[in-house]
Amino acid sequence: MQTEEQLKDIVRQKYAEIALQDKSSNQASCCGAGGCSTEVYNIMTDDYTAVEGYNPEADLGLGCGLPTQFAQIKMGDTVVDLGSGAGNDCFVARNETGPNGKVIGIDFTPEMIQKARENADKLELNNVEFRQGDIENMPLTSSVADVVVSNCVLNLVPNKAAVFAEIFRVLKPSGHFSISDIVLVGQLPEALQKDAEMYAGCVSGAIQKSEYLDLIAQSGFTNIQIQKEKAIVIPNDILSNYLDQAAMESLNAGDTGIFSITVYAKKGQENCCTAGAGCC
Fold first, then answer.
1. Three-class secondary structure of residue 259 per DSSP
2. Are 55 and 119 contacting, i.e. CB atoms less than 8 angstroms apart?
3. pLDDT value at 124 more than 80
4. Using one digit for the tens of pLDDT, what is the confidence trace for 168-178?
5. pLDDT at residue 257 greater than cutoff 60
6. Residues 96, 68: contact at Cβ < 8 Å?
7. What radius of gyration do the chain's Cα atoms show?
8. Element (H, E) at 65
9. Exposure check for the chain: N or C terminus, fewer CB within 10 A?
10. Please, are residues 152 and 31 in contact by the beta-carbon 8 Å criterion?
């Protein structure tokens, strides 16, 4: 069984490769991993092209949602993007915060940080910065962020509870997050769970939807809401790299589901009680 550090090394190596390949190669696979599919072009990604602040050079096609669309970012906010890649969601968030806000992207792959900084320089944005670091131990002081966003990243992290604890720490007392991620309903076949490429491709590192939501609640967050949910269908020409025909038919016919969800949660008390009730 691989250790957490070994899994991190797999992800770091894979995403270093992704930083150097073109967008079409990334989008034609599972979050940049595995072979190209002839059945679909985008397996998980959502379309950013109509989103204000979108920069095509920063979009590597690695996401599974549009978290900034649901993040309720206001002018002047400080926004932190976890697993910021080439900077796509950071630049969209910068459009929402305006020149008086601040956007900080965190990524642990040096090649991604370099690519993001180059993109920021081209856009001449002086309030977007990128820091190399582990999102289980963020290079940020406490209570600094109004909003945390992330797009198809936490599923790659072995210790998700540590990440949610860090999100709670860096958010201001009234802050919130909006995170798009991959979750499961039912159990994936063992071949998918064990394969390193599929782990780096966002699928085998995913956990059960119920467990994911429980981790958020256990970390102290309130007002937890699923803002968007969509089923992810992995084409057979990708599944065939991991499963035989019988196993593919069983997976497609069974109750197992792979989903992209966008989840919102707030740091602080829910607005759920009346004055004098003693619960706020």
1. strand
2. yes
3. yes
4. 999 999 999 99
5. yes
6. yes
7. 18
8. none
9. N
10. yes
